[in-house]
Every structure is written in structure tokens, then in C-alpha cells.
Amino acid sequence: MEPNRRNFLRLAGTAGIGVVGSGWGRYAARAGAVSSGANTVTLDHAEAKFEDGGTLRIPFWRIESGVAGPSLLALAAQHGNEVQGVEVVRRLKEVCARQLIAGSVWLVPMANLPAIRVRRHSVDLGPEQPNKFSKGHNMQQAWPGNPEGNDTERLAYALDRAVVRHCSHAVDIHCWNHFLAAETLVTRGHAPSELLSSATTTRFINYLPVSPPLDKASSLYDLMHRRGGAGIVIEFSGQYQMQERQVQLGLTCMMNIAKALGLLAGEPEPLEGPRVERTPAKTHTVLAPCSGVFMTALKKGTTEQLIPADFVEQGQPLGHILRESDLETVPVVAPVSGYLWQLNACHGNVCDASLPAQHPYTERAETLALIVTR
What we know:
Distance between the termini: 46 Å
Oligomer: single chain
Order of helices and strands: HHEEEEHEHHEEHEHEHEEEEEEEEE
Radius of gyration: 22 Å
Number of helices: 8
CATH superfamily of the largest domain: Zn peptidases
Strand order of the largest sheet: 1-2-3-5-4-6-9-7-8-10
CATH architecture of the largest domain: 3-Layer(aba) Sandwich
Structural class: alpha/beta
CATH topology of the largest domain: Aminopeptidase
Shape: globular
Number of domains: 2
CATH class of the largest domain: Alpha Beta
Number of strands: 18
């Protein structure tokens, strides 16, 4: 397989990138390798040596087609409360084991196993502490890791050595709170990464400014850029949970990316309706007209509640508040037509950790919804 990876430079010309990193070496742990048709599926491990002398082995799959091509990484659950990508990666493994026609895929379903085990964003957080309270254990900001750093940095280092540096394209799978819609994040003007983002089917896309070169730890997608590769982030809707709708969305995104890179046969499945770029100028805020308990409205002509990413028309009910002072029902309507990026108030912006922050009681002038126009 080594020559195939070296030959990737020729195939990557259409994506505008070259081989990432300096190491394309084999790995010894091939006992888990099985053949699935023409493809070889290997269960391997990234071994991190922790500060206390212990070790942790993070499992990952590597699927080789035997044909030259890009190396695509799907990495999920850098944060222990963002777990929907775990199932996305598992399903992608099943697809690629049967259908991969070129290149390779590297699949890490549970990147930050210590944080998953404590069921929190980062391993050092306590009950109802949001991510801003983490002291150096936010894996998203730890790449490429440090073999002499804290345990999270050591974990990132082990994953980089075993997986990341061998990949030409990377998708970093995250989840934010369920009041927000799924979104693809990509660096504006970075053509190899925009190739990936154009294949996703999230309703929303957010173009990030170009980051200056860094000599310190950074995000996974920044690391890919610095090495000459491509990287994007996909944020799905909902933490601490598995939603079939979001998992299916994630699998479609990943299969589309693989098709765009020539790893799977066929054309990417198009997004139904328009792609919406989220910018401040196009984002309209809906404030609570009074204090009370908010109830979300139903979609037109259905018995289903509105959810983020739904389209609403100007004047359409978004819900109502039972006003605390006099028990009057106060309607909340859409001021413009557009797509819901946020629905319901996230009190104190700590919905990633706190149940009280998700409570439907809202105070007057709190943000109840954000609508993005086309």
C-alpha cells in the first residue's frame, strides 16, 4: 500500500493539495485486518502514554482499497458530550468496507475516550461546567499534541502519530446544543477544504476567516491546512444524545465527501433546497416579548414541532409564551422569511452542560430564535 500513498500526489492535483506530513509508514498492529471484498479493514490503536505512567489505546479503523487515491479522515467525539458522530463513523465504516474504490479512509469514532467516559465536554470539567472552564484539556485546541504535555495533549499526539499525519483530507465531527441547526464550517478561500464543504448537506454553512500561521497548538482543521491538506468541521445538532435524523445527515455528508474525492462511486447527493450562508447581516434575532414559559409552534399542516434548520415564513408562528404576570398567551412570530438557525433560548450560553440553561422559562428580551435569510 505504500506506493499508493506516494502516488497520491498525482491524484490530488484536482483538489489542489499535496501529500500531508512526512510519514506514510505502515503500522505493525495488523492482527485486526480483514478483507471485505477488495478492501482491507484494519482495527488498529493509537496508544497514549499518560502522566501517571499508564497508557490508553484509542481504537480506529483503517480501510484500504488497494488503489491509489486520497486518504480521508473522519474523527468524532473530541468532546465527550458530542457523540452523534460516533454512529456516523460506524455507519461510514460499513459503507466503505463494501464500496471503497480508491484511496483509504481512517475512522476514529471516539477520539477523546476519557471525556466520553466522564460524559462531559472535557475530562477536567465538573457537573454543569461548560467548556470555557476547561484548563488545557479542550482537545479541539490541542493539535498536534505534546508527548510531554497533559493527558489530553498526549492523547492528541498519539492520534496524530497513528492517524492524522497519514491523511490528506479530514472531517472533524462535532455537535453543538440542540437549539442550534447543523452547520458546516470551512475556511474561506481554502480551495481544497471548500471542495469538502461543497459536498455536505447541512442547510447552513459558515465561512471562517483565514487563520494566521501558528507555532502553537491549534484545531485539527488548522493543523491539516498547515500541512498542506484539507480540513473542515461539521457541527450536528444535539449533545448528550443520538438523533437518527442527525446521524443520517452525517452519513450523507461523509459519503458525499468520499464521492467528491473519488473514493466512492457515484455523484454526491444534492442538498434539497438552498445552502444558506450564516452571516451577521443575514441573521435576524427574535426576542422574547415578555417573561414566561415558551412553547414551540408546530410546523404548518403537521403535528411536528418546529426545529432548527426549518424554513419559516414572515408572520408564521414560532410559538407562544404563557406570560407569568397575567397568564395571557403571547404569540411569537417570525419577523422575516428564512431558515431557523436557533430556536429556544439557551440561558447563559451554557446549554452544553446545564439542564437549567435549557429550561423553557424565558425572560423578556432573551433571544428566542435566530432566522437567517437567503
